[in-house]
Description:
six-stranded mixed β-sheet; alpha/beta; 9 helices; 15% strand; two-stranded antiparallel sheet
Amino acid sequence: LAQPHVFLDGDLIGKLRLSVPGDHNQLNALAAIGAALSMGVEADTAFDALATFKGIERRLQDVTRNEGPRIYDDFAHHPTEVHAGISSVRSSASGRVFVVMQPQLHSRISKMAEPMASALAQADGCFILPVASEGETVTDCSGNDALALALSSQSCESQYLNDTSEVCAALSAAQIARSDSIIVMGGQSLEGLAEEIADYFDDQCRALSVQETERELSIIWGDRTGVPPDLLDQIRAHVRTSPHSVALSMAHRTLTYIEMWRRSENLAQLLLEKGVGSGDTVGVFLRPNIDRV
């Protein structure tokens, strides 16, 4: 995370070292420093204390296990909170950002569907659970319809689930990569779901690691296979028919066919701009990882 310098009356008083992401946390930290200084606390003491702050439970709490994507548990249920949470994760994420959300109160969502959809649109994909009434007496499910309508006009891909039992399967079908991030947003009704998702992906990734190890051994010791003469035609077919299927798996990262194709096009354009032509030799630098070799 960035470590901005903090000035008071033009003088540098310290460097902000936070382990929690987000502009809102930096603003909160500055307010805490101001309060501490006004009470006579030394600046160094205040900065050192903030450096040990690990965040608050269910406030963008990182519950990631040893394996799998980053998993965050967040109590966000207001558009401003949703916007801040997704922006915070996006600022440090290396892959895509997904949201699993259960909105609260039909009366609230019916009135705030547009700003909620706008906040959720920052994510690469959303998995929406039915609105939780949280004790509210409802005669209809207007909140669900209002949010679905608002999200339909946004670029974010949204999938609607019936209950929490469908979440892990839906995330798995979305081909979540280890470099991706998942934010679970909701009230008390979703307590424990983020840990369940983290455990699920931890188990899945451990199993995948075993399979990858076995596959690597077969490549090292097995018979070599040549490149099919119609390889490019096969890839083009996959781009047309299964663009979001995984084409390459590289340690903690994956590339879909469409992502690989777009990167190849970008690389080809760059080489053309550099004057590289047909028949020229191009050197490729690879880090010494067996999966990339």
